Amino acid sequence: MMIKSMTGFGRGEARDSERLFTVEMKSVNHRYNDIVVRMPKRLTYLEEKMKDMVRNEIKRGRVEIYVTLENLGTGDTKISLNHPLAAQYYQCLREIKNSFEVKDDISVSLFSKFPDVFIIESREEDEDEIWQCLKNAANQALEALVAMRIAEGEKLALDIRSRCDYIENIVRIIEERSPEVVQAYKTKLKERIREMLEEAVAVDDYRLSMEAAIYADRSNITEEIVRLNSHIAQLRKSLKESQPIGRKLDFLIQEMNREINTIGSKANDLEIINYVVDVKSELEKIREQVQNIE
């Protein structure tokens, strides 16, 4: 199982007795599956077959296909001599020469100037034979393209996994820091009350505990941390799938961003906020990588 990048290139060649096909394919990022084929006009009837072949292997990305054809045989035209007409032209030229004592020779170049002396016919080609040759070249290009996309996908997956490890470690630190924030808030509140009263009076511990409990409830980030860890686990699992996962990963990154933003707004702690900034930075780097995954 492996993920695929949307970036790649492949080239293939195939020949038979009559023709040589060269096919080049390149793919780049695209939201949908967009396939563009550029080939000689007389082969446009094969365009949909080419697209179907690519669609079977590539589900997302813009793929540009370039097909060139070199004729090795007689080509698609047949030229023959119209013997009866040429004979009549020749007879007429001889009569002109003899009757008017014209000294110029009757040359081949002179015959070529007469209309219809040469018959040009379109030679019927075997469409199945043409497609088979083109298909062989296209298969080579497609295999090379897919192989490059897989190799690039493996690198992307490795990078994303390492960033997930880093994020998971920061989330663990935030989770450990969270209870300390409540205690720090309680201590700070107690000091502020004493400063406001400007005298060493006893502070009601019960009221302090109530305020701290309200703060703890308001700043509790347990649910967000659980969901964030769940999204990280889903992201890792998705990286092992073979089907296109780009849109799924994009959704998971959005949800992870939502959870970390909530943690930052609820924690009200400078140290945790700094960790949140680090996580958001890593998520943005992952999001950029995900844009290139099929």
TrEMBL record:
InterPro entries registered for this protein in UniProt: YicC-like_C, YicC-like_N, YicC/YloC-like
Ranges of residues in domain Endoribonuclease YicC-like N-terminal: 3-157
Domain Endoribonuclease YicC-like C-terminal, chain residue ranges per copy: 174-294
Example of a GO MF term: RNA endonuclease activity
Pfam families named in the record: YicC-like_C, YicC-like_N
Cofactor names: a divalent metal cation
Sorted UniProt keywords: Endonuclease, Hydrolase, Nuclease
Family per similarity comment: Belongs to the YicC/YloC family.
Name this protein carries in UniProt: YicC family protein
Source organism of this protein record: Thermotalea metallivorans
